[in-house]
Amino acid sequence: MVKKFIPSRKSSSRKGDNGIVLVVGGSYVYHGAPILSSIAALRCGTDLVYTSVPKINVTPTRAISPNLIVIPLVDQKLTRGAVTKLLGALPHNLNSATIGMGLAIQDKNALIYFVKSLLDRDVRLSLDASALIPEVLPLLANKNVVVTPHAGEFKRLFGESPSNSKSERIKTVEKNAKTYGITVLLKGAMDVISNGTTTYLYEKKIPAMTVGGTGDVLSGLVAGILSKNRNALESAAAATFINGLAGKAVQKKLGLHMTSTDLLDEIPTAMKPFDKIV
Question: Domain 18-274 belongs to what architecture?
């Protein structure tokens, strides 16, 4: 099934044909989150990744990898001025974006303006962490948007906590996905992915993946696959599955001692069975 969700690559394709992704995140404390997302997007076969982080994080982000195209946010937190400058610096052929990993937001209206501007450009979105606020929900209906909350973020976004009961948890995800016209990826021991009509479940059983940063890797995978597949539900389901395959491989190799950077190294191996060239 996942093979159907990951598009083929044309043998005649050129740079940019296989996805252009924007990652916006980071803060004084959480400098690593957008780096993990960005490298995950690259590892799953995206051609170009633009990583926008606060100016205080620019030097360490550039030092981590020469593969990232780093665009500084002019302020240390997300402000209207920072968003305006960033929108002017982005490529016009951007396919998808993931926003929120470790991101410090000074002005909620700046986030709302940013999300609306990207959707107006037909950019597919994956929203995580600090970008998961109820004020953005009215903008998202019937767009190509995935939200990736854990249980606490789910409550903040939708105003209700997901139940520990499997059946009730599924119903809650489906209800909110349908109400708001979005794809919801509720993270947990069992990931629940739904657009309100179709639902996929992924029971990971990978306790090593409780380490910090695995959700940031997942966000990068969602955006990376979403840059090539416009279907938000399929992209989220494929990303969850690939993230899990990589996690299982790392746990088998390292036991309960993995880091999220170990996860990044396993993504190409996890993706390889799904590679198709036409």
Answer: 3-Layer(aba) Sandwich (3.40)
